[in-house]
Amino acid sequence: IYLSNSSSNTLTSNNASNNILWAFYSTSNSINNTVTNLTINPTISFKSKGVAIKSSSSPASDPSGYKNISKFINATNNSANSWFFLNVSYIGSDVAGMNESSLNIWRYNGSWSKVAGINGVNTVQKYVYANITSFGIFAPMGDVPPTSRFINGTVMDSFNKIGIAGAIVST
Question: Can you list the alpha helix ranges (DSSP code H) found in 9-117?
Answer without folding.
Answer: none
